[in-house]
Amino acid sequence: MWRDHLTEIIVFTLLFLLVSAMGFVAARWRAPKDMAHLDEWGLGGRSFGGWITWFLVGGDLYTAYTFVAVPALLFGAGAAGFFAVPYTVIIYPLVFLLLVRLWSVSHRHGFVTPADFVRQRFGSPTLALLIAITGIAATMPYIALQLVGIEAVLKTMGVTGESTVARHLPIIIAFAILAAYTYQSGLRAPALIAFVKDTLIYIVILVAVIYLPYKLGGWGEIFDAADAKFDASPSPGDGILLNQNNQLQYITLALGSALALFLYPHSITGVLASKNRDVIKRNMSALPAYSLLLGLIALLGYMAIAANVKPLPGATEGSVDNNTVVPLLFEQQFPSWFAGIAFAAIGIGALVPAAIMSIAAANLFTRNIYKEYLKRDATAAQEANVSKIASLVVKVGAVACIVFLDPQFSIDLQLIGGVIILQTLPAVALGLYTRWFHRGALIAGWAAGMGLGMWMLYQIPNPATKREHFGGSAFALEKFGLDTPKTIYVGLVAVAVNLLVAVIFTLILRAAKVAEGPDGTNRDDYFADEGDPRLVPVPVSTPTPRRASDDVPTEPVA
C-alpha cells in the first residue's frame, strides 16, 4: 500500500516538482535569441560549454533504465550483465575523432540531424530518408524504456492500481508534465535538469557502494552469495564469471553496442549542441567517469542477491519483474527519506534522456521528412513548430507502448533498436571519412543488413516469456548450421553483411558508370571550428537559410 511509503512518496514528489519547475524556467536560461528556430529549440543555440555538455551527454547516455536494468541483468544472469561497462569504456576512443568531424561539417552547413549530413554528403534524399526513418524507429522503444524505469520505482512505492488506467496514471501525468516543459523550453530543459539528475545519482550510488558492503558483511560475502545463487541455477549461461557458452555473445554485444551508441540521434543531438570542437574532445576524455559509476551501479545486482531481495510480480501471472530489485534494495536497506531520494534520482534520470530522445526524433521528422517531402519552403518558425508537435506525438507513442504492450516486449524492442541503428554506420560514421561508397550501394547495404538482422531476430525465442520470435539479440550459431551452442550478437553480423554488400555494389555501380551524386561538402568543412567565418550563424529572424544541399543537383525524390 502507498500509505506505507508516505515519506518516500513525499521526497520523490518534491524533487520531481523541483525539476519540473526548472524545466519551465529553462526557456529563459542562457538568453535564447529566437526559440522559434530549431537551432535554439532543438540544439540549445549550439552554445553549450564543457560542463553543460558533460552533464547533458552523460544524462542522455546513462539513462534511468540503465540504472535499473544493468543491476537487474546481473541479478538474473551474472557476469554477462557487465557487457555495458566495457562498451561504454571503448566507445569514447572510437568516436573521439568522428564526432569532432561531425560537429565541424554540421556547423559549417547548419545540419541539425545525421540525415542532414548524409543528404549533403551523398546527394541522396532517399538515403537520407532511410537514415531518418531508422533513427526514429530505433529511438521510439528507447523512450518507452525510460518509462519502465519510472514504473519500477512507482511499483516499489505502491503507487499502482488494478485497472490499466489506474496502474499507469502516474506515468501519464509525469510524461504530460515532461511534454509541456519540453515543448516550451526545448533542449534547454533536459540540459538544466541534468545537473540535478546526475548530482542525485552520484550521491546515491557513492553512499550505496560504501554503506551496503559494510551492512551486508563485505564484498566477499556479496560475491559468495551471488556465486551460490548461480551454482544452484540450471541455466548454462549464468554465473559470476563468463563461460565458453557466452563469451562470444559478450564480446560481440559489447563491440556492437559501442558502435551503435553514438549513431542514435539523441547522442548526436547533445554533441551538435556544444559550442566548439574542444568541448567535444574534453567530453570524450571525461565521460568515462560515468563508466566508473556504471560499474559500481552494476554491482547493486549482486548486493540485491546478498540482501535476499525478492523481485515484485511481473505483468503476467507467475513472472517476476527483475527491474524492481534496485528500488527494493534501497527500500529495504536505507531509511525512507534516503530511499525517496534514490527513487527520485531514477525517476528524474528517466526524464532527461526521454526529453532529448523525443527532440532528436522530432528533428529527424521535421528536417528529413516534413521539409524534404511535405513542405520544402517551410520557414524556420514552421520547422520549430512542427518539431515541437512531433515531440509531443513521440511521447504519446512511448506512453502507449507502456500502457498497451508487455514491458518485456518494450525491452526486446530496444534490443532490436540497437540492431537497426547499426545499419546507419556505413553512411553516417564511415561517410565522415570517405566518399568512396556509392549512394546506391549504401542503400543496398542498408537493405541487406536490415533484412538479415530482422530475419535473425525473428529466429530468437524468449524462454522467460514463452514468445517464439523477437525475444532478444543473441542468435544461436547452430541456426547457421554450425555445431556449437554459442550465440552471437545479431547487430554485428548484420552490419558486417551491410558493409560487404555496400563494397560489392559500389564496385558494380562504378563499373556500370551509374551517377554517384554530388558531394556537397569539401575537405575543409571537416576541420571548421568556433570563430570560423564560414560557419552558419544561429539566425535571429524567422526565414530559413538555404542549405547548401538545396543548391546542388540530387537524385529524383522517390
TrEMBL record:
Source species of the chain: Micromonospora pisi
Positions of transmembrane segments: 6-27, 48-68, 74-100, 127-145, 165-183, 195-214, 250-273, 285-305, 337-365, 386-405, 411-433, 440-458, 488-509
Domain of life the protein comes from: Bacteria
InterPro entries for the chain: Na/Glc_symporter_sf, Na/solute_symporter, Sodium:Solute_Symporter
UniProt membrane topology term: Multi-pass membrane protein
Keyword tags: Membrane, Transmembrane, Transmembrane helix, Transport
Disordered: annotated span: 521-558
UniProt name for this protein: SSS family solute:Na+ symporter
Gene3D superfamilies for the chain: Sodium/glucose cotransporter
Subcellular location field: Membrane
Cellular component terms per the entry's GO annotation: plasma membrane
PROSITE patterns for the chain: NA_SOLUT_SYMP_3 (PS50283)
Main location per the UniProt record: membrane
GO molecular function, a single term: transmembrane transporter activity
Biased composition (Low complexity): 534-546
Similarity annotation: Belongs to the sodium:solute symporter (SSF) (TC 2.A.21) family.
